[in-house]
Hints:
Elements: E1 26-37, E2 40-51, E3 59-63, H1 70-86, E4 94-97, H2 115-136, E5 146-151, H3 153-165, E6 171-175, H4 185-194, E7 204-209, H5 215-227, E8 238-243, H6 250-260
Parallel strand pairs: 3-4, 3-5, 5-6, 6-7, 7-8
Antiparallel strand pairs: 1-2, 2-4
Amino acid sequence: MRRWIKIFAVFCIGFGLTGRPVQAASSLSHFDYTIQYKNKTYHKTAYVYLPDTDEKLPVLYLMHGSTGDAGSLAKQMQPLLDRWIKQGRIPPMAVVFPTYYPSRDFVQDDYSEDYPLNRFFARRELKKVIRKTESNFNVYSDREHRAFGGYSMGGVTTWEVIIHHADWFSEYLPMAGDCWSKNGTADVIQGVQKAGLQAEDLHIQAMVGENDGTKQDMIPQIDALRADDSGLFNEENLEYWENNDGSHSFASMRAELRHALPKIFTAKEEV
C-alpha cells in the first residue's frame, strides 16, 4: 500500500491560522493517566475542550497526526470550536485530545513507525481514556453520544478503532488517513461484524483534501467497503468528501471538521 502522508510542523506549532482571535467561551482542562507499553510505565496527559455550559455533553475524541501533540492541537482547535458553537454551526460538545505517543521520545520523522502506536492506542489505551473522561466530566456515557476522529496518522488510528471497537462510537471521522491493518478493508468488515452492528448503526465521514495524495489510498478502500457483499457500508453511512484545493495541512483538517461536525450528535435523544 502506497502511503502519501506528508507531515507538516503546523501540527506542533503555529496557532495563527484561524484569523482574528476569538474570546474564549470555553475552557481547556486535562487529565493524567498511566499506561504500560513494552513493560515500561508511561505517564500521559489528555486535554479536554469544554464549552461554557452546564448541560451534559456528547464527546468527540480527536487524534493528532504524526509528530503532533495533544496540547497544541487543543489550543489550535479551541477558538474554532468556540466560533462554530457560537454560530450554531455545531452542537455544544466536549472534545478530548489524547496522544498515541507513550512519550515524546517516540516521535520520529518516519511516520510509518507510528503505526504500532496507533494500533496500541486503539486496542489497549482508548478504554482508559474514555473511562477517565466519563468519570471526570459532565458527559454522556453511551455510544450514541461518542464520536472518534483523527487526521493523518490520527485517521489511521480512527480505522483501527473501527476494527477493534466499532460498537464504542456511533460516529467516525477518518481524515487524510487510510486503513493500514494487515488485511485492509476485510479487517474493517470483520470488526464491524464482530461488534454485532448493522449498516444503520454506523456513520463514517471519510475526508481528505483535493490535492492530498492520501486520497489515492483512501478511495479504493472506500469503494471496496461499499461494494462488499456484507451490505454493511453504503454511500449514506460511509460518506466521502474532498475539500476544494485542500492539501495535507491543518487548514485542510479545519475545513474537514467544519464540514463534518454539524452532522454529528444531531437528533440524539437523552438516554
